[in-house]
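Here is the promised in-class demo. Please do not try to memorize the tokens; focus on the logic of going from shape to residues.
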């Protein structure tokens, strides 16, 4: 049996009750599934029992890939690669449902990549993803809280997000030192159109670089004290970055683009 590799952030989910709860989140009979980080195939088995049309799995670990091939034969399409290097839009002809017990060390990179690379058409129907609870709390954080920040703003740009449940360390092998949370993401019908997501990244990076200080300095750095933007977006420069709502950040990214065009 393969041991989990700390360098790859591996913690294998072994609790059958939790596995059953995860695959019951949505009905995916006859749908195409993408599972990220299948590990030893515990969740994969539960997914296959639900009769999906096709199952893709992305696994970087060569040893685990060999085990998955032996265990599932031709029931899976196995992609032995780093999920951060894959262009999912070229893999599927139809929208997929994504499951993932994401590696703890790159979970924020994965979700950020998926959101920031989204074009006009979504390549997925929904995402059912597991994160460290602390990361999940940042993703779903509310305005005016200490957890609210760049990750909250980026993740909520094009997606609705719902927390499903927390998972205790003893559901995994090896046991992590922290709780985990399962989140459900699905596309928004309407969202602020930002031409280049890199501008949203820059706005949030500059604003949250000193999150405890007033936004006057980062605003002036980006917009040179532009009073028209202050009035248009009803911004108070004495506020802190966590006091600015999601929509205002998206509109600031648009204003930044307009100034640079």
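The designed amino acids, position by position:
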């Amino acid at each position: 049996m393969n041991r989990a590799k700390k360098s790859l952030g591996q913690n294998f989910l072994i609790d059958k009750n939790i596995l059953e709860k995860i695959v019951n989140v949505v009905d995916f009979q006859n749908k195409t599934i993408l599972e990220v980080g299948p590990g030893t195939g515990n969740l994969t088995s539960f997914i296959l029992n639900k009769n999906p049309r096709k199952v893709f799995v992305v696994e970087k670990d060569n040893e685990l890939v060999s085990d998955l091939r032996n265990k599932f034969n031709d029931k899976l399409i196995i992609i032995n690669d780093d999920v951060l290097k894959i262009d999912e839009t070229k893999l599927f002809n139809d929208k997929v449902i994504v499951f993932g017990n994401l590696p703890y060390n790159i979970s924020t990179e994965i979700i950020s990549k998926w959101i920031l690379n989204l074009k006009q058409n979504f390549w997925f129907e929904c995402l059912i993803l597991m994160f460290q609870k602390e990361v999940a709390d940042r993703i779903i954080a509310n305005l005016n809280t200490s957890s609210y920040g760049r990750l909250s703003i980026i993740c909520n740009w094009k997606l609705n997000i719902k927390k499903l449940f927390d998972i205790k360390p003893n559901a995994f092998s090896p046991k992590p030192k922290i709780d985990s949370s399962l989140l459900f993401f699905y596309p928004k019908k309407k969202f602020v159109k930002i031409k280049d997501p890199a501008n949203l990244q820059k706005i949030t990076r500059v604003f949250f670089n000193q999150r405890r200080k007033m936004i006057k300095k980062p605003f002036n750095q980006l917009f040179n004290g532009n009073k028209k933007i202050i009035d248009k977006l009803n911004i108070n420069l004495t506020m802190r970055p966590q006091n600015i709502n999601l929509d205002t950040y998206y509109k600031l990214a648009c204003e930044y683009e307009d100034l640079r065009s």
